[in-house]
Amino acid sequence: MIPALRYLFSFDVDGTLEVGDPPGPITLDLVRRVKALGHVIGSCSDRTLSDQANLWERNGIEADFTSLKYQLPDIWARFPAERAIHVGDSYVDRMYAERAGYTYLTPDPDAVTALLSQG
Question: In a designed cystine with 65, which of 33, 42, 56, 99 is the match (CB 3.0 to 4.6 A)?
Answer without folding.
Answer: 42
